[in-house]
Amino acid sequence: AGFDLDQIVQYLTRQRGEPLPESLLKTLRDWTVGYRRVRIRRAIVLTPDPDLAVDEIREALESDGLEVLDEPAPDGGLVVLLPPGAAQSPPSAAEDEALAVLRAHGYAGQWEQPPRLDPAGS
């Protein structure tokens, strides 16, 4: 049903009122390894124009709770991990959220009109 081993152990421990026997923990661990599951988490790669400050973009994303990997993408861009629940959301919902954060900080997506600059410079 998508539960992790830790969630199952916590639930059983609460129900039992005391820690589970080590033999049961070993059996549960062996059972979960037998499934050979791979967790999938969606991510997007942002490749800013060369004249943009990548650190500023990273700071904007992280300040809004998005996780940016320390390692750059092969093209030097930023790898933004989408929230774990993004796998269950419509394909573009999490990407739209990241784009909304960028827009709020004055950045535009590749196919969008750039934000209008105030001619007075303010």
Automatic annotation (TrEMBL):
Domain of life: Bacteria
Protein's name according to its UniProt entry: Helicase XPB/Ssl2 N-terminal domain-containing protein
